[in-house]
Design a protein that fits this description.
- The protein is 47% helix and 14% strand.
- It is an alpha+beta fold and 160 residues long.
- It has one domain: Glutaredoxin (3-Layer(aba) Sandwich), CATH 3.40.30.
- The protein has a four-stranded mixed sheet with strand order 2-1-3-4.
- Strand 3 and strand 4 form a beta hairpin.
- The termini are far apart.
Amino acid sequence: MSRRQRTFAAAVLTTVIAALTNVGTRASGQDIYPAAAVANKDLSAALATARSAHKRLILDFGGNWCADCHVLDYYFHDSVNAPLLDANFILVHINIGRLNENLDIADRYHIPLNKGVPALAILGEDGELLFSQRTGQFEAMRTMQSSAVTDFLVHWRGRR
């Protein structure tokens, strides 16, 4: 392994450790995904809010057991991404249990859960599907940087 590869590997490892440490601190025992039974109610309420606030929705499919889901949530709420998220989106966490809950919602928004979680769908303010992650782009979030989330949010924020 070259010096450059070792340096890169060390940087990635440091980022992952920092993110996972902060995830634990941020969550402090708190689940990020609500009970699976409330997903349809949460989605309906978020759609109403999105219409009135003229914001897009991010549907975040995952589970509280998923380390990558916690890293993504941490990145969503870091100092760079939180203002982008708050200004442009309503975030809805959809609990998929152990890949056995809310499968109808995942199907409705073309989320192939077999590709991994977290998986995101973007809806317009009127509920129309604008994008769904169909290839597991964020399923290895623990190896990614916060800037990947920033790029995603900037790309999908729409025009205000």
